[in-house]
Amino acid sequence: MRHGTQHPDIVPVVPTEVEAALRGGPFHVALRTAIAARGLPLQRVQHHLSRYGVRVGVTSLSYWQQGARRPQRPESLRAVRALEEILQLPEESLIRLLAETDERTGPRPAGRSYRSLIEASGVLEKLLADLESPLDGGLHTIGHQDHVRIGARRELLARESQHIVRAHREGVDRYLAVHHGDPGCVPERIAVRALENCRTGRVRWHHDTGILVAELLFDTRLRPGDTFLFRYAFEDGTAGASREYVRGFGLAGGQYALQVRFDEEAVPARCHRFTQHSPAAPRSGRQELRLSGSHRSVHLVEPRVRSGIVGIGWDWE
Fold this sequence. Notes:
The chain is an alpha+beta fold. It has helices at residues 16-24, 27-38, 42-51, 58-66, 74-86, 93-99, 101-105, 114-130; strands at residues 139-150, 156-167, 172-180, 191-196, 199-206, 211-222, 227-235, 244-249, 255-262, 270-276, 284-289, 297-302, 308-315. The strands form three sheets. It has a six-stranded mixed sheet with strand order 4-7-2-1-9-12, with no helix packed on it. A four-stranded antiparallel sheet has the order 8-13-10-11, with no helix packed on it. Strands 3-6-5 form a three-stranded antiparallel sheet, covered by helices on one side.
């Protein structure tokens, strides 16, 4: 259900230039045209969004309409839906342009279209809500290591993670771990293993998007300032050939290390690291990585992570 009081039988009157922009896209042009047509400064747009319970900065709105960045987080996608009402646009008109990004820009190296990323962000939001997850989990990451294993069939076989965290809220006693399998994975067959200082609680998944969320319960309730170390794993192996592993960070801070180890029967021809500001942004910071450890593993280290995405990709041929 859309927020607001607009009568469902009333069709918004859309100016001709806005209608053309919505029909032809891309998203940032349509958004910029619609804002200009309504004569709203960005500060007023931000104010209207706040009345819908959505908080978006003027800088972000400016980036969106310039095409420098694209909405991709759940909160940002809620803002886009609210903008459709604020700017008196047809329902789903801006969301549709976001979802069609892959059709306009060609295939994405990640193997996932922008449409699937939008769907996944909404699914993840629902799964987290089902586990009563607050917006702030009460933990800051100090250190984080991922060890990924690629099997003999080139599949993502498993991912083991170790976290060192510091609590900044009273009574924190759990962590929600998210696994997003490769296209074609079967999340209901993915096993969650609590390895150190935690135990597995509730597990939720969504078959079509390949997302699995696992509740990891601590054996203590943390107080503000307490540090805690825990380790867990996802045993996957349910999808086809894997070509990369990515990790997204909503907030900056903490150290991150990622190691990918390949089976001796499936060693890639070359590997590289990369970064992205968001799933919709172009990839940057590409750097070739040399296979080590009898030519079977590669790694990267981020001394202090920034918000966005960092990952390792590889070519099989």
